[in-house]
Amino acid sequence: GGQHSPGGGINISQKGNQGVAMGGHAIDNHHDPLNNGNNTNINNAEEEDEASDDDSEEEEEEEEEDSSEISASDEDGSWIAWFCGLRGNEFFCEVDEDYIQDDFNLTGLNGLVPYYDYALDMVLDVEMPMEDSLTEEQQEIVESAAEMLYGLIHARYIVTNRGMHSMYEKYRSAAFGRCPHVFCQGQPVLPVGLSDLPRNYTVNVFCPRCHGLFFPKSTRQANIDGAYFGTTFPHLYLMTHPEMIPVRPSQHYIPRVYGFKINQTSLYFRNHEDDHGQSENRMSSRRASRSRQGGGSRR
Q1: What b/e string do you get for 87-111 counting C-beta neighbours within 10 Å, with b at 16 or more?
Q2: Looking at residue 86, what DSSP letter applies?
Q3: What is the per-residue pLDDT across 61-99, written as a single tens digit (0 to 9) for each?
Q4: Which residues, 6+ apart, have CB-to-CB distance to 149 below 8 Å?
């Protein structure tokens, strides 16, 4: 986190848990041993002095590390690399800048994102000459708008061939997590949104094996807007790469009481009648198709 000045542009203060504490003062608990003639008190004061110095050194080292991280992101990395490297943004891939520079790929986004031009310049590390005319509140809005703009561009990018390849690398390493369903045996999941419009739903993860929808394991990732991944990506990805579609689980959990199956007419299944009806219909249709195939073979 911290401040980021893309291309010498606007300095933005990060909000929330992405921020980095800057300018912290080292605690100086100095004791003057000359004020007390007791040797024991002098020794205690010296020990406390050494402990205080150690604490101060540790705080200074932490501040230096934070400062070095911020300066590294400012000088060496782009805004996109910095944003994707933030803790909690592991679901995002880095969008190619040439994709963002193509106006066709950004069609319609200027009506969804406030301070659109400023936000786009920040994402692309373009120097903004009018930085002094923005208030601190406006700068915070521009930073938030840049994150929203990148997220909406990201949702469009990951359904392209290049975007799918970038997401494939994350999917292969299970960067999006694994399905919590027992019989899916740790199947890697894919991110998906329940809406293509921002500020409606947070991101979920979709299991290609059981087709279940789950919350991300990390609370940081669970707060990401689902529109930044869209409703299309995981399904189009599997349709484009059918060899990646896993086999559905062959096992199904059967509830039992003292080892006995619960009768389907029990009140236990009262609110699940439709599910059982559908499963029975599927089983009967399978039996019917098998009988038809068997009858055809006898002919």
Answers
A1: ebbbbbbebeeebbeeeeebeebee
A2: S
A3: 544 444 444 433 445 589 999 999 999 999 999 999 999
A4: 109, 113, 116, 119, 120, 123
